[in-house]
Amino acid sequence: MTERKKFDKAFKEQTVEKILAGETTASLMAKEIGVHYSTVRDWLIAYEKDGSSAFPGSGNLKPEDDEIRSLRRELANLKEENEILKKAAAYFAKNQK
Questions:
Q1: pLDDT score of 1 more than 60
Q2: Is residue 41 a contact partner of residue 10, using CB atoms and an 8 Å limit?
Q3: 4 and 45 both lie in a single domain
Q4: pLDDT by residue (tens digit) across 5-61?
């Protein structure tokens, strides 16, 4: 089995920019670098959608995704705190009667 090729962000951006500039086509570029056409096509789609943040790298998130993850974590913490406060309020209301 062949080893999977890995390309860094700069290489992907250069490849996409050549295609967008009309210097080559996606299929020719795919043959040149030795990957399937769909790989280069996916790079193009990602670059057109996200621009310079299109290829965050392994284990990294796009800034928007990182913010969403952070907000979800904060929301979960706030929900937990809210439940604790509800229980405390019910406890103290019960003891006042």
A1: no
A2: no
A3: yes
A4: 778 878 888 888 898 898 888 889 989 888 888 988 888 888 888 776 677 666 566
Question: For residues 81 and 7, what is the distance between their CA atoms, to the nearest angstrom?
Answer: 44
Query: Structural domain of residue 51, as residue ranges?
Result: 1-57
- Two tokens, residue 77: 């913490």
Has residue 86 got a pLDDT over 60?
Answer: yes
Q: Structurally, how many domains does the chain consist of? A: 2
Q: Please check whether residues 19 and 65 belong to one and the same domain.
A: no
| 10, 42: one domain | yes
| Tokens matching residue 62 | 């796009």
CA distance 34 to 50: 25
Same domain, 74 and 52: no
The three-point CA angle 78-79-85 to 5° equals: 90
Q: Is the pLDDT of residue 81 over 90?
A: yes
Please check whether residues 48 and 8 belong to one and the same domain. yes
Tell me the C-alpha distance between 53 and 58, whole Å.
13
